[in-house]
Design a protein that fits this description.
- By secondary structure, the protein is an alpha/beta fold.
- The protein has helices spanning 7-11, 36-48, 81-88, 90-101, 103-114, 132-148, 180-187, 207-221, 279-282, 368-381, 430-445, 456-463, and strands at 25-32, 53-56, 72-74, 120-129, 155-158, 176-178, 196-205, 226-229, 236-239, 244-248, 251-260, 269-272, 287-298, 305-310, 326-337, 340-354, 394-402, 409-412, 419-423.
- The chain has two domains: 7-70 and 207-285 and 404-463, 3-Layer(bba) Sandwich (FAD/NAD(P)-binding domain); 122-202 and 287-402, D-Amino Acid Oxidase, Chain A, domain 2 (2-Layer Sandwich).
- Helix content is 28%, strand content 28%.
Length: 464
């Protein structure tokens, strides 16, 4: 077994000193958690309001899930669009998708405003499907998207795909029939089980480098309004009617608003002195999976790409958790050391479920069975797979928080509006984190917002 070695943290070069909380402080907004959600929340609050922001992190900036992800930028909810439309109504479901897809524009604006240099690629990516039955869900989703006036991305189905006759006529305008080899070419695959492909905008970025650079920007531009403390664990959040207090060791941070941008598995306690209990609900709001990833290097002979592969066969009940039916592959330029550039092929998919977050160790050993599963997938599927055993340069895992609704939780805690949330990556966190951060800043600014599918009360109802 290997330790948890992430390529994103391997690239990260932090030159600033670390400040630890060592005094009692007051601020307008205290943000807990300095991953992508916390840093983006601080960014938008500072940009869109005149509030003071204090960001506190138990470890180091971007060293949690943000530094241990797959590095893909992709729009995806954990629930099907058709399920969201049934649950919340078509209009609300469409608003949610439209707003989160709009985070692409927000990210581009951040790059311009902060003059960021962290490399980011954007391109057309592809999702492959090995089953007409599974593809039917996407066709149903797209039919509803057309009705809601949303953008619909092309679906291509192989002319020789089994089960074509089972596709309802109402979906006829939503896909095109193409030669099977065209489907495989888009997927860069040699595995003929994949009979359909959806194309949509995707991207890739080292989120740890991105967030570290934004932190530097905030410290420089918002001196006097922005404070960051790392290696300062939160022990308790105490909520009064008009303010909150964060207890960290011997020190107390007092704030008008407290925003939790964590993965939901912290060991701190929430005490609500101005209403009913929040603590138990919060610590059941997010459940965890550990995602396993591995990466190897190749020559820079191909452009960046992001691919997903959905197999046709459901896993057998007695199969290990890491035998997954969904894999993702990303290729991007990667600089190991100065002027040593290659393509990094990053593949993930295997997961294990956590009954309790206490059992996850961020520096814990890597499960080699996951690497074997990934290697088998690469050899079976990827046209550019190396011959013989694959020498993985990096093997890493990360904790992913899943909410009962399959959606991010963004907004004010109904039992005490001093407390706010921007939590729940649900496997794909970059775009939803960015949109959630904007929404938090709008609430802090005092904007009147329409209710949304991200409201904490909906997560409570799903949990109940």
């Amino acid at each position: 077994m290997h330790n948890n070695i992430s390529p994103w943290l391997h690239q990260l070069k932090v030159t600033r000193s670390i400040d630890r909380l060592d005094a009692d402080l007051k601020t307008d907004v205290a943000v807990v958690g300095a991953g992508i959600a916390g840093v983006m929340t601080a960014y938008f609050i500072l940009k869109n309001t005149n509030k003071q922001v204090l960001l506190i992190e138990g470890g180091k900036v971007a060293h949690g899930a943000t530094g241990h992800n797959a590095g893909q930028i992709v729009f995806e909810f954990e629930e099907e669009f058709s399920v969201l439309a049934e649950r919340y109504g078509l209009e609300k479901a469409a608003d949610a998708e439209r707003l989160v897809r709009g985070a692409w524009i927000l990210l581009e604006e951040i790059y311009q405003d902060a003059n960021l240099s962290t490399p980011m690629s954007s391109f057309m990516g592809y999702n492959g499907y090995a089953s007409i039955d599974r593809l039917m869900e996407e066709l149903r989703n797209n039919l509803l998207r057309v009705e809601a006036g949303l953008q619909v991305f092309p679906i291509y189905i192989a002319e020789d795909a089994p089960g074509l006759e089972n596709i309802p006529k109402e979906y006829a305008e939503l896909y095109s029939l193409v030669p099977h080899d065209d489907v495989l070419a888009l997927l860069e695959s040699k595995d003929r089980q994949y009979i359909a492909v959806i194309s949509e905008r995707k991207g890739c970025v080292n989120a740890a480098m991105l967030i570290e650079e934004i932190v530097g920007y905030l410290l420089s531009v918002y001196k006097g309004r922005f404070t960051l403390f790392e290696e300062s664990f939160v022990d308790e959040v105490i909520l009064e009617k008009e303010y909150g207090q964060i207890i960290s060791g011997k020190n107390i941070i007092t704030a008008d608003k407290v925003v939790l941008c964590t993965n939901g598995f912290e060991n701190f306690k929430i005490t609500n002195k101005a209403g009913s209990d929040i603590d138990v609900k919060f610590h059941h709001m997010v459940k965890g999976d550990v995602g396993y990833m591995a990466a190897y290097l190749e020559e820079m002979t191909h452009p960046p790409i992001a691919l997903q592969f959905h197999d046709s066969i459901e896993p057998e009940a007695d199969k290990p958790a890491y035998e997954k039916i969904y894999y993702y592959l990303t290729r991007r330029p990667f600089e190991i050391e100065k002027d040593e550039r290659h393509n990094l092929i990053c593949v993930g998919g295997p997961e294990t479920h956590l009954e309790s977050a206490d059992t996850y160790e961020s520096d814990g050993l890597y499960m080699e069975e996951a690497a074997e599963s990934i290697e088998n997938f690469i050899h079976r599927t990827h046209k550019g797979a190396p011959k013989g055993p694959i020498e993985f340069k990096y093997k890493w895992h990360g904790l992913m928080g899943y909410t009962p609704t399959g959606l991010r939780v963004v907004g004010e805690e109904p039992k005490n509006r001093v407390l706010m949330y921007n939590i729940g990556c649900n496997g794909v966190g970059i775009l939803t984190s960015i949109y959630g951060s904007l929404r938090i800043s709008q609430i802090v600014r005092g904007d009147t917002l329409e209710s949304s599918v991200f409201d904490p009360k909906d997560t409570y109802e799903a949990y109940d």
